[in-house]
Amino acid sequence: MLAPCPPRRGRSAPAEGGAPASTGRYADRGAARLARGGRADEHGPVPAPDPPADLVGLPVGEAAQRCRDAGFTTVRVLGRHDVITLEFREGRVNLLVEDGVVRSVTVG
Predict the structure, then answer these.
(1) What domains does the chain contain, in order, with CATH numbers?
(2) Where does the pLDDT of residue 86 fall: very low under 50, low under 70, confident under 90, or very high at 90 and above?
């Protein structure tokens, strides 16, 4: 007969009902997000705002400032051939820039 494995280091035993307890490595993700400037209401984190509609065609500095003013915590400026990661980041806006002018805007 096999014995159950001991809990892994940094993890707590399952809470009553078999669900993992909310401690360990990722237990404070929401608190960490809020500490970095994220927002929350009584239902949890609030999604990132929509980017201002009139960013395309603006100089990159002005567009970046408008995004920060709209509530984005991260403004990523990208050139046409820049290598980027595709993970979604709440509160991040991506500005695709050519010759110092915004050509496209995405969120995440």
Answers:
(1) 13-46 (no CATH), 47-107 (3.30.10.10)
(2) confident
